[in-house]
Amino acid sequence: MIASKFEFRSPKDVEEAVRLYREFEGEAVYLSGGTDLVPRMKLGLEKPKVVIDLKRIASLTTVEDQGDWIRIGALARIFDLKQNDIVRGEFPALEASLEGTSCESLQMRGTIGGNLLQNSRCLFYNQSEFWRRSKGFCLKMGGESCNAVPGAKTCFANYCSDNATALCTLSAEIELSGPDGTRRVNLEGLYSNKAERPFEIQPGEILTAIFLPKMRSVGGYEKLRVRGAIDYPLLGVAFSFVDGTGKLAVGAVGPRPYVVEIKQPFRDTVGEAVETVLKQVKPVGNTVLDPDYRKQMIPVLAGRLVNKVMEGAK
Amino acid sequence: MDREYTIIGTRMTRTDSLAKVTGRASFTADLKLPRMLCAKVLRSPHPHAKILNIDTSKALRLPGVRAVVTAADAHGVKWGVFRYTQDHPMIAVDRVRYVGEDVAGVAAVDEETAMEALDLIQVDYEPLPAVFDPEEAMKEGAPLIHEEYPNNVNIHVHIEVGKVDEAFARAHLVREDTFHAPGEAYSTLEPYAVVASYANGYLDLWVPNAGPHVRAKALSNLLKMPLNKVRVRRINVGGHFGSRSEVSPGDLVTSLLAIKSGCPVKLVLTREENATCTRQVHDIKATIKTGVNKDGTITAKEFRVVYDGGAYSSTGPIATSIPYYVYEEAYRFPNVRYDGYRVITNKGIRGMYGCHGRAFLGGNEMQLDMIARELGMDPMEIRIKNGLKVGEETATKSVIISGGLEEPIRLAAAKANWAERRAGLKEGEGIGMGCVAVMCGFPMGFRSGSACYVKLNDDGQATIVTGICDTGMGNESMAIQIASEVLGIPVEDINLVNADTEATNLDPGAYSQAASFVGGNAVKRACEEAKRQILSFAAAKMNHPVEDLDLKDRTVVSKTDPLKKMPMRWIVREAFFQGKPIAATGAYMPKIDFQREWVKNPYGQMAGTYSFGCSVAQVTVDRETGQIRVPYFVAAHDCGNPINTMAVEGQMEGSVLQAGVAVLAEETRWSQGWLLNPDLLEYKVPLACDMPEIEPVIVRSNDPEGPFGAKEGGLTTRMNAYSAVVCAAHNALGVPLNEFPLTPDRVLKALNAAKSGGES
């Protein structure tokens, strides 16, 4: 049950959606597929007065070939996108991450934009209001310190988008439309590096599209999880090789994907790239597998993935 | 070949299946009664605290609130399965002992109002020091959670048979290992829910339960109401696995709210409440010592097992014993010492589980493989050598009347091509075998037996009335199938009235694996008596010798003369004419030693019979990531004789998921007294995509006591599938795996420990 009552609005275009947001500033949220928002509302992590549904805005759902760029509407469904010919032909890392997202029935509901803007997760945070109140609020809920690492003044929640990790290896850009107009930034520029508020996004801004440079890539995505489906990644590693350059991204072990460029021959450079990532990540015991193990798996999955992709490219 | 039976042993679609798969079956949470109120429970936010004061006045003043109850409204009766374990007040009186414990209940016109009212109840707590680890809790100076349990030891089961120390001294090889498995959460599809309605002095209850009579008795005690005034009604139950065996605090809270408000009241628990506030599965640490002869014969066993019991006794003595019993029921232990300690901690209450004792069973079987390896024996050979046979006694003196361990082992091995498969394993592959035997029923005093009524209706159809309860495994269909076989009428001619305490007679319920063996026997006997009556009327009416008559296809037929027959309904009507309608009673009481007691006297016949089983699993292990997959599984289960072959196979397949795949993933995770994964996202119930190819093998031992030779239908797989995978993983890796479940991080840790000087 969703404990707080809310109004439901279904604007027909982005301008109307932004106008509604401004009308209810501070009390409104945007709804895309709802696979992140609805569970959060059920747990009382979000208590909006107004839910602005973006699903009726047709322009947000299309995939377009714009010549130098492929434009993916932010409300394209994961399930549709993984079957899109352009995605399958040009961006295998993205295709693999879409395939690895949750399970097919949720892929049919979830959208690529919603997947990118999913909130960061932690076993001490994604809990009911009763649970959180009885345990005491953590940093991400406005408390004094972290509950996963008692006493810590840093939030260690994990950003668990499978697709963001893959998109980072494809040099994706995103388009945001809000009260102050429209802007286009690198996907990596979306992240604040602060797990309690993971996105650099202005109030009222809507993620409208994702742009990928139209260059054929080879690539892949490896996901660590306990079960064969549904689970969020405990670690996600993506790799794409475009025009002589490789990009490796590591996700779900911090507030953002960690991205490193690697040069050929990869046999010599992957280790170094992984070292760069290992220096930045600090997994803690806030999800279901041992944090040291998750860190240990970064070089294992990265090494395997790069080998597999390059073998396949021969 | 002529079939021995008409419908017994067929692959019949269960009588309940259609309603369930089409969503038409109603469960407790679906029920709607006029004027029904919604209940919510206020729960303890502390793992351990004194309650100084509870003020409900503000909540009562909230418009829409119809009743608020606290311990002051209860009758001061504590719950415990046994007299000596009555320690749980069900609604906290002056102390809370776990996060989520029931403190007060509210009934209001809707859910929102009820939740708002909870916030208005003011409870003043004084937090107390808490303890979460059972071994810490046993130490001197640990916070004492109940005054009556020194060192927080709730139950100590001690079993001693033979001369254990001498046998160890003489043994050719002795091994000692410790295994640990964390607790688990029941993952029934149905949320726990209660509907209570009170009128004219009678309390009617609909609640997912595994035995309506036992539930009604517990509630009549807690409510201080006469037993006949508490009526537990039949309702579909969406899963059980042990979690619905006992009365739950929600039953009492909802009943009190219905009595106080004068309106029907419904309580539906959230998934979080299901996981934290009904029952959980024990965390178990088992130290196992085994001595063997040169030829692999087990000569001595010693066990020290610590069970984390959570805050109250629940089924304490039973839970502290079952893992050992299902093991001694499989293997011959001439000398054995078992010490099981159930320890109270400030966590949710732990109860029975369909696959209770995973660390114990998996540990024993893996250790047996380690011993076999040292002796140069095949794991199959050492199991057959030590397996109990018909006519033998278990260590604690239960006689085995059918089955025995050898046949399930041989049939499982044959199906799996054990020797070839083992010889052909590639790097990273392993194969393992797990065995167990399970009691069909256990001592529950006069409630150990079942009684059934049957009446023949004037259209020749039958109504059978039995206490048999179906929590999802197909017991209702089983009862109907037995009646159909005996009465010679199709299943659609049989009406079932069951699991309703007013209409039905006693039955032990859908736990302790008694339903088919005990309840099914009572149905069979009642129908046989009805058949005797029908044939006796028919003999007179048809002027034909009774011994040559039988019932088939709604007809009384001659066994020798195909032309001699008469519709059964004619006979039934004749009986009505004569003022002697066909109506019969049948009862069955298993041959159990009722002097046996879980703690004081753990010796004597435990159950009427035992089922035996062997699982074989093949695994692949990724040595770099520690990830295990189970591609292939054989489950052989001796169910005596299957009543419904498809239903038995279904139970076995479900059991492979619940144990053989859960061994890779399922565990509860804690931060002190807070359960970190009360949901079904982070509590990892295996998914369809994780399932292996399964080959179920039904073993027929034709039990001399069971109805049509039947015993229970599938529990051995639920108990040994875990062990089979554990043994297969050990076979693949060659290192001890002492920490379960076998998540990749644990597997890698075990590999690294072995690399850095540990044994292999």
Structure description:
The complex is a heterodimer of chains A (314) and B (760). With 314 residues, chain A is of the alpha+beta class. Chain A is 31% helix and 21% strand. Chain A has two domains: 1-56, Uridine Diphospho-n-acetylenolpyruvylglucosamine Reductase, domain 2 (2-Layer Sandwich); 58-117 and 157-313, Uridine Diphospho-n-acetylenolpyruvylglucosamine Reductase, domain 3 (2-Layer Sandwich). In chain A, the strands form three sheets. In chain A, strands 4-5-8-6-7 form a five-stranded antiparallel beta sheet. In chain A, strand 2, helix 2 (37-42) and strand 3 form a beta-alpha-beta unit. Chain A is globular, with a radius of gyration of 19 Å. Chain A starts with 6 loop residues before the first strand and ends with a helix. The relative contact order of chain B is 0.13. Chain B folds into three domains: 17-24 and 449-588, Aldehyde Oxidoreductase, domain 4; 32-128 and 193-240 and 244-268, Alpha-Beta Complex (Aldehyde Oxidoreductase, domain 3); 280-443 and 595-755, Aldehyde Oxidoreductase, domain 4. Chain B is an alpha+beta fold and 760 residues long. Chain A binds chain B through residues 1, 3, 103, 123-124, 126-128, 130-131, 133-135, 147, 224, 226-232, 287-290, 292-293, 296-297, 300-301, 304, and chain B through 43, 45-46, 99, 111-112, 115, 270, 272, 624-626, 664-665, 669, 671, 674, 676-678, 681-682, 684, 686-687, 689-690, 743-745, 748-749.
